[in-house]
């Protein structure tokens, strides 16, 4: 028998982070957020890396880094915050060592997200060989759209990935340019972690990342999936 919630915990438990679902009043509960690093060749090159020499690698954001209210509060302790627009992959069924040919069976849906990055703090961490959380996993660092079920749109393997800042196009790529495709990243990641229903994978960003300032308007999307509109405050 479960104890009443007000006596079972020594403090009030935090709420469950969620993403809305397009066209529904139901919510998608977030378990973990995995981000694929340098998954577009031109972005890897602009960050000073050779995309032909790297296996996929991952870092994490915290589930409660997700915000869906259309604003991004410019964070403290940084003067060089960058945008990175990405397609979100929402996992609906978990597993370990998932075969590539079965990977898409584990996808519930897709969305759009921004991997906001305190680039100056990330750069300092890289130089010192330290983890990236201070640059990647800060509060409100994952502005996101509603999710769209794969049952509605299928599994997009191509489609323009784009971002405008104050109306000027800054990022432009295509899902078919991803070095590691969605089935491959799911299969590889499930060999490192046990994927769970509720996990989100941020699938990487095309070239053209750059800094933002307060007052900027970010508008982006992935053709066939959706759009995201965010104001920097």
List keywords for this structure.
alpha+beta, Fumarylacetoacetate hydrolase, domain 2, 6-stranded mixed beta sheet, 5-stranded mixed beta sheet, globular, Fumarylpyruvate hydrolase, hydrolase
What does this 3D model show about the protein?
There is one protein chain. This protein is an alpha+beta fold. It has one domain: Fumarylacetoacetase-like, C-terminal domain (Fumarylacetoacetate hydrolase, domain 2, Alpha-Beta Complex). It is built from 6 helices and 18 strands. A 6-stranded mixed beta sheet has the order 4-3-15-8-9-12. The radius of gyration is 18 Å and the shape is globular. The relative contact order is 0.25. Residues 33-233 form the Fumarylacetoacetase-like C-terminal domain. One of its GO terms (molecular function) is fumarylpyruvate hydrolase activity. Its EC number is 3.7.1.20. It is an enzyme of class 3 (hydrolase).
Low-confidence stretches: none
Number of DSSP helical runs = 6
Count of individual domains: 1
Order of adjacent strands in the largest pleated sheet: 4-3-15-8-9-12
InterPro entries: Fumarylacetoacetase-like_C, Fumarylacetoacetase_C_sf
Enzyme class: hydrolase
Keywords: Hydrolase, Metal-binding, Transferase
GO molecular function, one term: transferase activity
In short:
This protein has 233 residues and is α+β, with helices and mostly antiparallel strands.
Please specify the SSE layout and strand pairing:
Elements: H1 5-8, E1 18-20, E2 27-29, E3 33-36, H2 41-46, E4 58-61, E5 66-67, E6 71-72, E7 81-83, E8 85-91, E9 107-114, E10 117-118, H3 119-127, H4 133-136, E11 142-143, E12 148-149, H5 150-153, E13 160-165, E14 168-174, H6 182-192, E15 200-202, E16 210-211, E17 217-222, E18 226-232
Parallel strand pairs: 3-15, 5-11, 6-18
Antiparallel strand pairs: 1-2, 3-4, 7-10, 7-16, 8-9, 8-15, 9-12, 13-14, 13-17, 17-18
């Amino acid at each position: 028998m479960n104890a009443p919630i007000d006596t079972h915990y020594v403090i009030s438990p935090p709420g469950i982070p969620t993403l809305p679902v397009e066209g529904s009043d139901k919510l998608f509960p977030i378990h973990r957020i995995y981000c694929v690093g340098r998954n577009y060749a031109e972005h890897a090159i602009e960050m000073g890396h050779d995309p032909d020499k790297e296996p996929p690698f991952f870092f994490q954001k915290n589930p409660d880094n997700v915000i869906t209210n259309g604003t991004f509060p410019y964070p403290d302790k940084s003067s060089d915050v960058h945008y990175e627009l990405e397609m979100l992959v929402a996992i609906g069924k978990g597993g370990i060592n998932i075969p590539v040919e079965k990977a898409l069976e584990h996808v519930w849906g897709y969305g759009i997200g921004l991997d906001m990055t305190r680039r100056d703090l990330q750069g300092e961490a890289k130089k010192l060989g330290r983890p990236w959380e201070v640059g990647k996993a800060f509060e409100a660092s994952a502005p996101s759209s509603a999710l769209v079920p794969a049952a509605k749109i299928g599994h997009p393997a191509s489609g323009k990935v784009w971002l405008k800042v104050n109306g000027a196009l800054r990022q432009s790529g295509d899902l078919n340019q991803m070095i590691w495709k969605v089935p491959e990243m799911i299969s590889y990641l499930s060999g490192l972690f046990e994927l769970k229903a509720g996990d989100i994978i941020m699938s990487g960003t095309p070239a053209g990342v750059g800094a933002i300032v307060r007052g900027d308007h970010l508008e982006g999307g992935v053709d066939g999936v959706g759009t995201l509109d965010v104001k920097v405050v």
